[in-house]
Amino acid sequence: MLDRRYILENQEVIRTNLKNRMVQVDFDRFLELEYERRELQKELEAVRAEGNAVAKAKGLTVDERRAQGIVCKQKEGALTAKLKPVEEEAQAIYVTIPNLTYEGSPVGGEDASATIAEGKTPMRQFDFKPRDHIDVMEDLGILNLTAGAKVAGGGFYYFIGQGALLELALSRYALDYVMKAGYTPVITPDLARDSLMQGAGFVPRGNESNTYHLEDSDLNLIATSEITLVGMVADEVVETSKLPLKLAGLSHCFRSERAHGSATRGIYRVHQFTKTEMVVVCLPEDAEKVHMELRRLEQEIFDNLGIPYRVLEIATGDLGAAAYRKFDLEAWMPARNGIGAWGEITSTSNCTDFQARRLNIKYRDGQGKLQFAHTLNGTALSVCRAMIALVENHQQADGTVEIPEVLQPYMGGLKKLTPQR
RNA sequence: GGAAGUGUGGCCGAGUGGUUGAAGGCGCACGCUUGGAAAGCGUGUAUGGGGCAACUCAUCGCAGGUUCGAAUCCUGUCACUUCCGCCA
After folding, report:
1. Strand ranges (DSSP E) for A98-162?
2. Among residues A21, A269, A295, A357, which one is catalytic?
3. Of A5, A97, A109, A233, which has the fewest Cβ atoms less than 10 A away?
4. CATH fold of A110-417, please?
5. If you classify domain A4-94 with CATH, what class do you get?
6. Which residues, in sequence order, are CB contacts of A272 under 8 Å at separation 6+?
7. What is the pLDDT of residues A287-331, one digit of tens each?
8. Where exactly does CATH 3.30.930.10 map onto chain A?
9. From the alpha carbon of A218, which nucleotide's C1' atom is closest?
């Protein structure tokens, strides 16, 4: 959420931003409602002040107070009835107004996002036709999609043997790597309340929701541990000495992917995956620096895994509502779509104070005043996507897959994935 | 899952219908005192909204309700504690 007063005082900034982000918001209606709301609010407060004065007045008898109080109460009731629908409609529009946008973000839709850097690993020249991750992994006996579909439906999968170990190795490697940069490892709940889902920027119910809601409860399966990590400090004043608060959550992530149907083959788009996610709560003046650190860590992890990638500066039209600025890493997946394609593997967003305002995350500034903190998030490693990039890039003509050196200690020294009996 | 109890400011804690936004204490800030420090003394010390300001509105887990008036009464809900049951 943006500051309501800021919105009223910077209407043109908001209008331009809505246009750049290609977001449909009835801003005129919002302004109309907001001004009306403020007028009604003032009237209501005046009536309340009168009522309070009557209730406290020593010169009046109880009967006199009662008589005058009832009049105030009636007026208050009438005003409240008028105010409520105005407030509700204004609020409904208010929550759809997205964050401000970094001035350097390319203006436009998804296609406008700009490649601003590339990884250290060059794209490999294959002397054979690279096979896609499904073929490679199924032949190795480390992936079983059929069983996943049988048990839980499309979009679910089994990792078996070396595949299971590979998930743990990737997750643990990423966790250890960011721990060295000062991130505290955290295991979080895999479920979260509706209110937190909304606060963190995820729609818990309805058709546009990408999350699973648990029937007869106010709980949802989390789509990322970002939700539970920021939830940990929601409604709190974080001690300034503890900032920046750097967390690395390891959790399962669940996504219903209603919008995408169930057609996607393989493990690129699945309903459940494991992800190591970084979240930082910091002072406003540190946010930009932290964002660069998140991006650097993501790059280093994939450089070390020997996976070629490019870094995208995300265009205005493709930013999430909370993101002020966002980078994606896209790995080269040599067999994707049959001919090779870039596929998103990580994403890091600077949410400025937008998410903190919604979740009420504060700190005390030098004057002792409460201020909203800034929050940022970034993927350290999302297992399925990383796994695709890894097996497709490191596959050998004989069907084996070389394990990157940094992962070998986590695989009991294993250097190659080989066919399982 | 059943029963009982509790939920007040940064913290502890008083407060069961009427100048209580909230006693007292701790902590913190400033001042006095001191060669310096400690102790002692004094003053101040919630958050958000509206207003240039005086001031005013809201907030005592959360949401409703009763009442002229609610931290205080009622209902629901969430959390915590204890007891019972169940269980990895």
Report:
1. 114-118, 143-144, 158-159
2. A269
3. A5
4. BirA Bifunctional Protein; domain 2 (3.30.930)
5. mainly alpha
6. A152, A155, A156, A252, A253, A254, A255
7. 999 999 999 999 999 999 999 999 999 999 999 999 999 999 999
8. 110-417
9. B78
